[in-house]
Design brief:
Elements (H helix, E strand, L loop, with lengths): L1 H17 L10 E4 L4 H5 L7 H8 L4 E2 L6 E10 L2 E13 L2 E7 L12 H4 L6
Antiparallel strand pairs: 1-3, 2-3, 3-4, 4-5
Subunit structure: Part of the Bam complex.
Function: Part of the outer membrane protein assembly complex, which is involved in assembly and insertion of beta-barrel proteins into the outer membrane.
Subcellular location: Cell outer membrane
């Protein structure tokens, strides 16, 4: 009976260890500028460099030979694997933002109501 209990204990320990993923623990890592949608949506041509810096923070990459371009990069690694990546490139002329490229949300175009929906222009 004693050998049976030892065998059962050993088998249960071995079965419990076989389902565990043994390896190094990988932490979640955020790198770069955290680009939230609200701040990015506020970007528009005509803003000054200081206004852009207030909205998004200091750019991650500034080319010393091309000071008219700022690159904002954000990467999020979850358990060692790339889970999210965003990139925005801003172009300036002098101190004014003129163009944006990358993961910029589309600009919503306002839809003008039709005369029928407002009740104007409808003849009884």
């Amino acid at each position: 009976m004693r050998h049976f209990l030892i065998s059962v204990l050993f088998l249960s320990l071995a079965a419990g260890c076989s389902s565990v993923n043994i390896g190094p623990h990988r932490i979640d890592v955020q790198q770069g500028n955290a680009l939230d949608q609200d701040s990015v949506a506020r970007l528009k041509p005509g803003l000054s460099r200081s206004q852009v810096r207030f909205l998004l923070g200091t750019p991650l990459v500034v080319d010393p030979f091309r000071t008219d371009r700022w690159d904002y990069v954000y990467m999020y690694y979850k358990a060692g694997k790339l889970a999210e990546q965003k990139r925005i490139t801003l172009f300036f002329e002098g101190d004014t933002l003129v163009r944006m490229e990358g993961d910029v949300p589309p600009v919503a175009t306002p839809v003008e109501p039709s005369p029928a929906s407002t009740g104007q222009g409808v003849q009884p």
